[in-house]
Amino acid sequence: MRREYELSTHFACGMATYVFQDGEKTIPMPRFVDVDGFFGYLDEKAVDLRKGSSKYAVGLKLLYRLFTKFVDKSKAPKGLNVSRILFDALLKHDYYALGSSNTTVCSLA
After folding, report:
1. What is the pTM (predicted TM-score) of this model?
2. Is 19:28 a contact under the CB 8 Å cutoff?
3. pLDDT level of residue 65 (50, 70, 90 thresholds)
């Protein structure tokens, strides 16, 4: 059985941010990923799914917007493929995807 993301009902569960070490600079993920905008978009897509939209069509739109609207690659650490990491995390439900890069990653909870 594959492990998937699990969150508890505790109000602070999942409340964290990822930071990336880029040389001497520490860069928090929200500096180059519009986290609030992305979660708002996820809410919209959830409504579409509940109304009967195709999960494949919704998924394709979601990935397209993720890569084109919510990630500012110019502000991301050099060599970090944010789109690939998020793709693996969201579609493969891969816990290790969030830590798989050439950049030092740390979760601050």
Report:
1. 0.66
2. yes
3. confident
